[in-house]
Structure formats: structure tokens, C-alpha cells
Amino acid sequence: MYIENNSSIRNFEGLNGLAFICGDVRITENDSLLNFTGLEELRAYRGQFFLYGNSSLYSLEGLNCSFEEGGHVAIYDNPQLEICNTERFCELQASDRSYSIHDNGENCSVEGMVACDDPIPVTVEHTPLPFSCDSLLSPSENPEEVADWALSIAPNPARDKIFILCENDLALFNVAIFNQFGQVVLKQEKSNVKELDVSRLGSGMYWIVIEELTTRARVAGKIILR
């Protein structure tokens, strides 16, 4: 897919539903391009990925495709590009994929220094109904304070330790971390300890599953270890 020298394109609306590209992706010299809205369904490509010379591009949000199966990734000369700490891009940094980043905005300028250490909220699921930490509140708590109970994991990517961030100090958790083959590589049961030592795990992508024992709510998400 080549989108080059188009001065009118602002996003990728109209390409909704595009899921796979068999070949290179080149998005270059599009002066009005702002973000990747419209490409949210793109999951994979075969080839190299080039993103450069887009003078108004400010965010990689909406770019959800996996870089794992493609070739070299080059992102440079996008002077307004500040938002690079997206999940997919942070996965790229934690992998052994060849990539280069330079001459972008301040937060995306130095290769290997993209701000991927901010907390990334995990995907929250509860069968059969969605769970958003409301159930960690006692009935007397004000529902308007739910935001104070938001559950997340930080840092992500991580090196030696992962912290479960939740305001409910009384909650007990079962925690399991799985590798990409579905094997349990770390397990912690009936504990309120929110600090996990992952220093013995190799670098790469893992799945973490947290079960809150009072409500039996289950929380699952991807984590990256460097």
C-alpha cells in the first residue's frame, strides 16, 4: 500500500475494514495527514513499513497492525509526531524486529527512547458482563468515584518488576502470567501483593490474567518484558 504526496488526506477513513496488506506499506510526504483513524482494523502486512515526511502527523494511535511478521520499520522526519507510546509500537520495541526512529517530535526522536513506560490499561473482561472495577467498590461507595479505582499495570513494557495499580488495598488476587505458547511462567495465588518480580522471565510478549477473589472478576491483558 503506497500513500504518497497526497496533500489533502487527513486520515484513513474510507479504508475501514482493511485487515491485511500483502506487501510494503509506504506512507510518505502527506502534508495534511494527522493520524491513523480508519486503519483500526488493519492487523498485519507482509513487507516493510515506511512512515516519513508527514509534516502534520501527530499520533500513531489507530495503527493497530502487528509489526511482528513484517520487515524493517522506519519512522522518521515527522516533526509533529509526539504520540508513539501505543501498544503495537511498544511491542515492536520489545521485539528483535529491525526498526529505526529519528527526526520526529520530541517524544519520538531518539531511537530506543520512545516513551513506552507509561502505564497501559489492561483489557478488562468479566464473564458474562463487562467488568470495570465497579465491583471492587462496596455498595456504600459513590459510583462517581469509580475512576479512582481504575485497574492498570505499570510499567508496560517492564524489565524486572510489574505493579498492579488499584486503590483497593484489601483486594485479594490470583495472578498468572502466560507465555505465547499458553504455558504458565509465573503464578501468585490469594495474595494482596501488587508487586510482581518478573526478572527471571525472558524478554518478549506475555499475557497476564488477574482474578479478584471477592467478585471473581477476571482481568486480562498483554504485557511486554524487555
Q: What does this protein look like?
A:
This protein is mainly beta and 226 residues long. It is elongated. The protein has a five-stranded parallel β-sheet with strand order 1-3-5-6-7, with no helix packed on it. It has a five-stranded antiparallel β-sheet with strand order 8-15-14-11-12. Strands 9-10-13 form a three-stranded antiparallel β-sheet, with no helix packed on it. It is 4% helix and 33% strand. The two termini are 31 Å apart. The protein has two domains: 107 residues; 102 residues, Sandwich (Immunoglobulin-like), CATH 2.60.40.3080.
Q: Separation of termini?
A: 31 Å
Assembly state of the chains shown: single chain
Please state how the strands of the largest beta sheet are arranged side by side.
1-3-5-6-7
Please state the structural category.
mainly beta
Query: Major sheet: size, sense and barrel closure?
Result: 5 strands, parallel
Label this structure with key terms.
single chain; 226 residues; mainly beta; Immunoglobulin-like; 2 domains; five-stranded parallel β-sheet; five-stranded antiparallel β-sheet; 1 helix; 33% strand
Short description:
By secondary structure, the chain is mostly beta strands. The chain is built from one helix and 15 strands, in the order ββββββαβββββββββ.
Task: Explain the layout of strands and helices.
Elements: E1 2-4, E2 20-22, E3 25-28, E4 44-46, E5 49-52, E6 73-78, H1 87-94, E7 99-104, E8 124-125, E9 152-154, E10 161-165, E11 173-178, E12 184-191, E13 195-197, E14 204-212, E15 217-225
Parallel strand pairs: 1-3, 2-4, 3-5, 5-6, 6-7
Antiparallel strand pairs: 8-15, 9-10, 10-13, 11-12, 11-14, 14-15
